[in-house]
Structure formats: C-alpha cells, structure tokens
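Q: I have two molecules that I believe assemble together. Could you output structure tokens for the complex as a whole instead of separate predictions?
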Amino acid sequence: MPSLCRDCLHSFETGPRCPACRSPRVLAHPELFDLAIAHIDCDAFYAAVEKRDRPELADRPVIIGGGRRGVVSTACYVARIHGVRSAMPMFEALRLCPEAVVIRPRMEVYASLSRRIRDMMEELTPAVEPLSLDEAFLDLTGTARLHGAPPAILLARLARRMRRELGITASVGLSHNKFLAKIASDRDKPDGFSVIGRAETPDFLAGQPARIIWGIGAAGQAQLAAHGIRKVGDLLRWDRRELVRVFGKTGLRLWHLARGEDRRRVAPDAPVKSVSNETTFAEDIDAPDLLDGHVWRLSEKVSDRLKARGLAGGSVTLKLKRADHRLFTRSLTLPDPTQLAERIHAAAAGLQSASGLAGPFRLIGVGVSALVPEAEGDRLDDLLDPEGRRRRAAEAARDAIRRRFGSDAIIKGRALR
Amino acid sequence: MKVSIERSALLKAMGQAQSVVERRNTIPILGNVLIEAEGAQVSFRATDLDIEVLDRVPGMVEAPGATTVSAHLLHEIVRKLPDGALVALSDQPQSGRLEVRAGRSTFSLATLPREDFPVMASSEYASNFGAPAGLLRRLFDKSKFAISTEETRYYLNGVYMHVAEGENGPVLRCVATDGHRLARIDAPLPEGAAGMPGVIVPRKTVGELRKLLDDDEAQIAVSVSETKVRFATPEITLTSKVIDGTFPDYTRVIPHANTRRMEVDAAEFAQAVDRVATVSSERARAVKLSLDEDRLILSVNAPDSGMAEEELAVAYSDDKMEIGFNAKYLLEIAGQVDRENAVFLFNSSGDPTLMREGGDMSAIYVVMPMRV
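A: Yes, here they are, computed for all two components at once.
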C-alpha cells in the first residue's frame, strides 16, 4: 500500500515505521497518491498562537474570548478536556474550567499569520478557498508535475512547514471532494492527516451520523430523525424524488452527499456577500446613549473592513437581541451604497429608533450587504444634509491619520460612550 | 338591512374601499367595509386607521340598517358579476351573514358587528376651501414621484401641502423630496385657503386622492387641520391623518444662483438618457452629461458591461462642464415636462441642479448630482 512518512516525507511501500528515519508517523492508504482535494484546519488556532507567543501557558487551559458575557471563540485542547467548547458562553466555560486563562482575541496577529499560511498554500496551487482565518480548501489537481510530487506529499510538507516556520499545527483531510475532505480533516485532530478514498466512501459514510453533513444542525437533525434518518446510511433507502418532496432543495443535496457526491468547486476568493460585526454586552443595556455608542463602534468596524476591501454596501442591517434572548433584525436599502462609518451609523441608528423596540438588550450587531466596488458608492450627497459633504471629508482625513498613527490616534467623542 | 344597488356603482365604491383596506390585517374588523343603508342611499366606509374613505351610492333601501363584511371578498364578488346586474344585499340576523344576490348567484358572507367598526373621530378643521380637481391633480401628480420611502425619515413620506409666497403672490404649494431630488409645485391659492396650516399628506393618501380627481369639472372640498386633511366630492369623502412631523426647510435646498443654462427637448432628452443607461449597472445607474457649446454628450461607462454615448443638440452657451446623475432621477424629472422645453440650470458638478419647464416658475425640480 502506498505509504508516506509525515516527518521526512519519504514515500515507500507499506511498513509500520519509515524505513528512512524510523518515524512512526506513517500515512498509508491505497489511494494516497491519487487524491487531490484537501481541507486544512489549524488546530485551536487562536489558542495555539497565544501559547506559541507565551510558552508559560503551554500546559495550562487557555480560552480565547471576550468579556464575562462573551462567548468562547477558541479553547485549547487542555481546556477542551474540561468540556469547554467553542461558542459556549464564557460563564459556563469558566464554571467547567475555573483555572482557565482567558485571553482577549488579538485579531490582527491571527490575521497576519493567516495571510502567511495562505501564501504558503498559494505556492502549491492557485485554487485555495479560505473558509475563515484558520481553515481552507485546496484543489491540487494537476499540480504533481509542477511540484514533482503528488498532493499528499505537498500537503504533508505544508503541514511540516507550518509547524516549523510558524509554530502552528494543522490537521489535513485529503479526499476526492470538499464534503469528504472536510470530514477527513476532523477525523484525526490535532496535528493529523486523514484520507478518505473513493473506494471506501460508501461504507464510510453509511455508518456516520447524519449531523456529519454540512448544514445539518440541531434543527436539521431533529427533522431528519422525525423521518427515521439518524445515520447517513438511512438516506440511501430514500428515493431521490421522495427526499426532494419532503426536504425541498436540501433533499437533493442530501441525496447526493449521502452517496459521497459533491461537485462544488474549490473557489478561490468566493466573493464576500456581507460584512458585519456584533457585540454581546457585559451587562444588558437599556440607555439609548450607551446603545448608540456601541452602534457607532460597530459601524466604524464594519466601515474599516469595507474600506480595507475596497467595497461599499447598499443595504444596512441592525441586529438586536433582547435580554429575553428574542432576536430582532431590521434592514434598509440605501439610495447610494456606502462604506462610510457616518452613513452606516446613521442608517443603523435610524433603524434602531424606527424599530420602536424597548430594551434592555444583550447583543447588538451592525451589518452591510449588497456589496459593490467602492467606486460605485458614496457618490450621492443629500440635499437636506448640507454638512454631509464636509463630514465625508472629515472621515477621509480621520482615516488618513489613523493609517499613519494607529487606529486609536483619533476617535469620535461618541465612541467613548 | 335590505338594499339593491346597481353593479357598476357598487364596484366603484368597493374598489375605493378595498384599496384603503390593508391586505394583511391582524385586526379582522379592519379588513371589513362598513355598509350603512338609510333613505335612498347606501354608504360604504373603509379604514386602515390612518385613512378613512366614505362612499355614498344611490340604492333602493327596503330596510335600513348596517353591517360589516370583508372588503376584498365583496369587491371580488362584485367585480365578477356581469355588467348591468342589480345586486341585492340583505343581512340575515339569525345566521349573522350577509346575503349577496345578483341574477342567479347567491353568496353568503360572514359579518362582524357594526359597533366594532372604528369610525374615525370627527374633528374641527381650521380651514375649509374648494379647489378644482384639475388644480389638485397637477399639484400632486407632479410632486409625488419625489416622495421618500425611507422609513427613518418618516416626515418625507408624503407631500407637504401648504400656503407659500410665490412669484406673484400667495400660492397653494406642494413639495416632496427624498433628499436626492425635490419637486416644488405651485397653484393659484384657492379662495379661503389662506389660513390653512401646512400638512404632510402621506403617500398612500396621495394615491387614494388621485381617484377623486379624474373629473376636470369637479370641485373638491378640502378641509385641513393640524392633524387631519379631508378631500370630498358629493359622493366620496376621503379623510386622512397627516404625518406628525416637521417638513424640513426646503427653501434652503433650492439653488438660486445656478447660472449655466441648458435648454433641451424633454422627450428627446429622456429617450437618450434611457438608451445610454441600458449599459449601466443595475444598482447605480450613473449617466454623465458633458456640455459644450450647444452640444450635450450623454455617456455611461460601466466597467462590467460596456459603454454608451449619445449626442444631443441643446441650447448651451456657457463654459464646458461635466456632471453625473442617477439616470432614474433624470428620467423622472424629464417626465414631468409636458408643454415646453426643459431648462436645466447647473452650478458645478457637485452642486444641486435645478430644472423647470421653459420660464415657468410654478413647477421646479431640484436634483442632486452623482460623482462619476
């Protein structure tokens, strides 16, 4: 069976240890050198970066997340032993693991590291589709001749390089489509490399729980279970038309995925559809002034991200979660797409007052969608707002100052509320 | 209640009623029309709590009375009845239904008690005057396109009707704006209107009012208070709350010092704008106007789809200039011109542009340029 040493990258025919370096980290699979679609997922990325930069934390449970009322964005593997999971409310995480070290995320650090990882990936193939800062799909089809090695070796080399040069481990899933590659990367974590071949696909999938299918959350699971579908294999008994009748468009997707069929391409730079930011308050907020301060800061963040990407958006959405956890969203279409914090804020604040919703609120979010290139935005002034033009100029001047002296160099009074 | 009504009169009344009634109603009674029969007249009343329309139709009243029934249902039924039919409405107190009979068709409709129907409180009007239908039609028709749909600036969601000082004395004036374009239309002040408080007539009311204004000969009785406005013909009374807000000071927005004057055939101009805008992107339909001695070049450059250019002969004798606009805004204001050439007065490519019809100052439009 084709085998590969993940340490020295030596390839050979079967054996429990690498004949060259005696490492036991051997990868063996009948289709090892025939598969080309990979999913790479960094292991506890944010936490791993923090541990790398603060070695004294190496053996301690580390949780990345914000504030007492925030949620866990990443938990290191030590913290996970205590039951801490991503998206868990922070107070619950701290109840499970009181000795955990909680660190506020340093997004700029993660983002620049992510950029370096992506550069490494792009040395292998132009078909890199990032899903977030810490995971991406790669299509290595047809790259073997260029690199003089099959995809499996390139991927093992990439993982080794990330470990050696960046101090980060990642888990690799290698298969024949995106659906299975993503499942594979999750099978052997951390620092893993897992392969799902074509031949084994049907048997492998049949035994998996239905929740393994992307997009099937708790609600989807319950819906499937109501029809007696608990395992992926249960889907095979269904006629395609019947699945579509019961589950609509999802039914067709389920039919194909249950057979290990996924024809989605690895799409580099899948276009951004929206940009949004939200914040969960440390304590529920009722005061309009305080709320407006948050709306401003969020608008500013969204605006910064739009400006960084050269985009403007034609639709603004405000998201409010009340103390009783009821979620409300309100949105409006702008006559002129914008990337300006001023305009995003005006729209979001307008939505908030027009909503007539009474607090207290526990979460607020601001989002912008219907994105267009920035050249198509902010082209129209308001007759009734003669100061608008001057405020636009002021925002440009402020951005220039922030670029030069840092984002805290100049802030609005309302940002302090 | 037992009445018979001629189908076409009933259809007209129900058409008016069902358009006031909101399609989706959480309060069932608001989906109903209140039918009241007395003397030789049957009245139909519908409301959405902001607007109330009352239509009086001659009918043969065998037994006076009143009931309420679904406006959409009754409208649909009457619409499908043959022309010229005589429609008999009679309520059946024991079953709580309204029976609708015409020819060989019989319908039995659910009713709700008339006591539950919210009749708009009558109020004192500060000003009452009569105005010809044609005068009101022009005021509202030419201004309504500029009404804003932006909910956050609710005070722009209507036409501001008020008394103002025009070129030659006081006028009845309608103004609408969404912040990007503005329409200001004047009409001679009808007798008795001088003391009228300024009111913002909501968009929906403007739409309903339009149905009263088709007959040029008709005289409309207008009543205005701080909170309500009423338009009445002998048959129909439309009462509406006005928007509770302050209309912005539009006079500051109207440019007075724009000197660069372009005169163009409005229809030709609109067609050319429409043609070149074909290649512009869906969202931002920006058209560039390049002006030179008696020559206008309209152009669109859309990186994704292509470019377009068209030249028009115009009267222009000022400095060369370039200015961009949203094509839709240009088409809408050009569409308001019906007698003479359109006169555009520009200042710079960043300042509001003014448009009027020839030298007529009774209808002026302001439009904000777009950076291109």
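A: One point stands out. The helical segments of chain B are 7-20, 71-80, 133-141, 203-210, 266-277, 327-334.
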